[in-house]
Amino acid sequence: MVKRAPPRKPRRQKLRFIDPVLVSVPEFARLSGLGYSFTRQLVADGEIPSRVVGSRRWILREEAVTWLRKQIEPKDAA
């Protein structure tokens, strides 16, 4: 008689918000197209708004996207 393994429990999916308020540094780097090290430097310099929650640093997504959009606006040639 062949012993069968007990059935596996179904994997629990992580709950994800469609439009999160906070994103991690690696996630913002991926979303923005910036490099991870460059994104960390911008956070350390205070260029990208971020907050510490617990022991992790989170980027405020809306404010960071606004900052990023200002960086790519064309400058007036005067």
Describe the structure.
The structure is a single chain. With 78 residues, the protein is an alpha+beta fold. It has a domain at 22-72. The chain is built from 3 helices and 3 strands. The chain has helices spanning 25-32, 36-44, 61-72; strands spanning 22-24, 50-53, 56-60. Strands 1-3-2 form a 3-stranded antiparallel sheet. The longest helix is centred in the C-terminal third of the chain and has 12 residues, at 61-72. The radius of gyration is 20 Å and the shape is elongated.
What is the structure about, briefly put?
37% of the residues lie in helices and 15% in strands. It has 3 helices and 3 strands.
